[in-house]
Amino acid sequence: MSKDKPAKIATPQPVRGTQDMLGEFADRFAHVVDTFDRVRRLYGFKRVEVPVIEPTAVFARSLGETTDVVSKEMYSFEDRGGESITLRPEFTAGIARAYITGGWQQFAPLKVATHGPLFRYERPQKGRYRQFHQLDAEVIGSDSPLADAELLVFADQLLKELGIAEGVTLTLNTLGDAASRDAWRTALVEHFMGHRGDLSEDSLARLDKNPLRILDSKDPKDRPIADSAPDIDAFLTGEAQDFFGAVTAGLDAAGVAWERNARLVRGLDYYRHTAFEFVTDRLGAQGTVLGGGRYDGLIEALGGPPTAAVGWAAGIERLAMLVDFEPRPATDVVVVPMGAAAEQRAVALLADLRQWGLAADMGYSGNMKKRMTRANAVGAAFAIILGDDELAQGVAAIKNLIDGNQDNVPFDAISDHLTDGLSRLGRGPLGGWTLFAPYKGE
């Protein structure tokens, strides 16, 4: 009598638009984050953390009720207390909320930076996911154009440190001050109303609430109308011209190349003055790898005091795709114990190696040949072989896996032997390694 076979259990699949990372891309991702953390410290930006979830009103107010992000893309739900909660689709609104509710005004001007996951219900495509990750940097509480310039110099240095500045262009525009923007908006509405019958449905919907967004419409039907719209330059006040001039002068002084893009806009009314994007065509169609602008009206829109602010964000996945990857070994030393007594000594030796700042590992099982094969596979520079003979003599057999030489080294001399050997190979402790070679271009 045969037994019934158990029903096959269906394996849960990942949520569409999310990704698991292992190996090379995970290393690229970590390298982007590590480089960002190192560079932001050079510029005096403090690390902050804000919640992944916020009241929906934080994003509805900051992103605008009529934007696609709020109306179509946010992951919002009602929690058990009946409150509408949203997974953050961007960082700036949550940081602005924290600035108000956390009493951060006392620290202004405040330079902060963070990174982590964000969520938008978008159509997944290359470099874009429903759970994605960004770097974010903000200067809150300063109305100086030098803050804008410093943020842009910070971004430029980050891209250079990542080795991806080649083929990336900083495009820059001014949205003017409130008076400039209001006058320009009135002129744009008049222009678009004159072509109302020829606009796309999306642009017609934007005409009343968000007319500036029509300028960057991708619909071919809108392009001739948008291209013939008036530029902001005719409406800039003297103060707005001076502000933009100070920003560009700061960039020139710091040696940061830039191009003017008079069609680069931010649709929401709280944006002022500087708007910018670092763009590249190295991912196929031209795309933005880092962008931002000045948002002097946001904190007031969230119920806080009038507060000047400027910031930028960059997609970690996109940056990781651009990094010219050259893997370097992540392990300095592999310990190869043979026998129970050697394994016990190896555990103690591993602890010492790691406390000395060396990246050390040990295979848990296998014969000598298999363990040495694994040591070579992870790119280790040295293998420390321990057996009964070595223990009896108080030495370790240290094999240089690069040139094949092997020496018996007393236990109290292992640190000096390895440090000297790694130095001759041009490899310092793991904490000092550069895991990626800069992108040199062609």
From TrEMBL:
InterPro entries listed in its UniProt record: aa-tRNA-synth_II, aa-tRNA-synth_II/BPL/LPL, Anticodon-bd, Anticodon-bd_dom_sf, His-tRNA-ligase, HisRS-like_core, HisRS/HisZ, HisRS_anticodon
Compartments it resides in: Cytoplasm
PROSITE patterns xref list: AA_TRNA_LIGASE_II
Keywords: Aminoacyl-tRNA synthetase, ATP-binding, Cytoplasm, Ligase, Nucleotide-binding, Protein biosynthesis
Domain Aminoacyl-transfer RNA synthetases class-II family profile, first and last residues per copy: 32-337
GO molecular function: ligase activity
Catalytic activity: tRNA(His) + L-histidine + ATP = L-histidyl-tRNA(His) + AMP + diphosphate + H(+)
Principal location: cytoplasm
Catalytic activity, EC: 6.1.1.21
Annotated PANTHER family: HISTIDINE--TRNA LIGASE, MITOCHONDRIAL-RELATED, HISTIDYL-TRNA SYNTHETASE
Subunit structure and binding partners: Homodimer.
Family: Belongs to the class-II aminoacyl-tRNA synthetase family.
Protein name listed in UniProt: Histidine--tRNA ligase
Organism: Sphingopyxis soli
Upper classification of the organism: Bacteria, Pseudomonadati, Pseudomonadota, Alphaproteobacteria, Sphingomonadales
